């Protein structure tokens, strides 16, 4: 009888303690850390989605944002080279010979304090590639455009943006037909 009483008292105390621990305070409010220009600077690990027609690839890449410039030490150019050469074996040989391609993407930051984000006006530069093929070198000039703005989000310290390779010129002549190559960075985390 005494054991039953102790067990009941223990269960009642446990339920009361559980009930108290689940109640929240009325003054629990999320106060975001306000962003400021310069918060977008840093090292990022990004998910890159590349689309060209029905082909889609995903990979993880790193980049650095500093002083209104995003710098990729290893920009993925496989789709560009494949478009120029139209042969996978030659593309792989050319990519090995070319090594890592650095690309710099300029942007202008604008603070949107009411949304706690920094808007990024992207200003893509032209990329020039020297593509070795069959003992010769083809010069490819890639023109990028950014039709949408990017954002640095203060809530999770992430950057989101995208741009498009919408024209390639090979040895002075426009590459036709050409299907645009979309580079989308839907989620890039600062580390």
TrEMBL record:
<dbReference type="Pfam" id="PF16128">
    <property type="entry name" value="DUF4840"/>
</dbReference>
<protein>
    <submittedName>
        <fullName>DUF4840 domain-containing protein</fullName>
    </submittedName>
</protein>
<keyword id="KW-0732">Signal</keyword>
<dbReference type="InterPro" id="IPR032293">
    <property type="entry name" value="DUF4840"/>
</dbReference>
<feature type="signal peptide">
    <location>
        <begin position="1"/>
        <end position="26"/>
    </location>
</feature>
């Amino acid at each position: 009888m005494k054991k039953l009483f102790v067990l009941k008292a223990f269960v009642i105390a446990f339920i009361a303690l559980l009930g108290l621990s689940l109640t929240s305070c009325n003054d629990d409010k999320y106060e975001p850390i306000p962003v400021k220009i310069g918060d977008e600077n840093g090292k990022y690990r990004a998910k890159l989605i590349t689309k060209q027609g029905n082909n889609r690839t995903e990979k993880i890449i790193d980049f650095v944002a500093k002083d209104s410039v995003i710098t990729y030490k290893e920009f993925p150019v496989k789709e560009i080279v494949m478009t120029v050469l139209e042969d996978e074996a030659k593309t792989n040989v050319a990519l090995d010979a070319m090594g890592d391609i650095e690309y710099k993407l300029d942007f202008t930051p604008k603070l949107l304090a009411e949304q706690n984000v920094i808007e990024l006006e992207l200003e893509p530069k032209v990329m020039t590639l020297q593509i070795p093929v069959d003992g010769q070198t083809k010069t490819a000039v890639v023109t990028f455009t950014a039709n949408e703005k990017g954002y640095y989000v203060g809530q999770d310290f992430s950057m989101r943006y995208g741009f498009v390779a919408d024209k390639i010129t090979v040895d002075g002549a426009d590459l036709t037909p050409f299907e645009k190559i979309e580079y989308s960075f839907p989620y890039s985390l600062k580390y």
